[in-house]
Amino acid sequence: MHGLGFAPGEEEHAVSSFSGDWRMRLNLARALMCRSDLLLLDEPTNHLDMDMRHALCLALQDFEGAMILVSHGRHLLRTVCDELVLVADTVAAALNGRKP
Length: 100
Prior knowledge:
Blueprint lengths: L19 H14 L4 E5 L7 H13 L3 E5 L3 H7 L4 E4 L2 E4 L6
Parallel strand pairs: 1-2
Antiparallel strand pairs: 3-4
């Protein structure tokens, strides 16, 4: 949780005591801390400041499972994804190493 900006001891606070932005960080922390083989993420950088976006990128780079990530954030996609499928006009195209 420290990597997502939480201070020591804040893990003891009630979820209701956090603002919407911090609740988003709590959800990210929960997803990253739970042992899982698959992460499904839909626009995970929404409502995150630049420092937290960077922290999320680092955490996702260390994730050892599979990930399905929906995002418009090109930086996130370039730094986290091994394979990219671009969906446009309901047609999916695998880019496999080519930049979007």
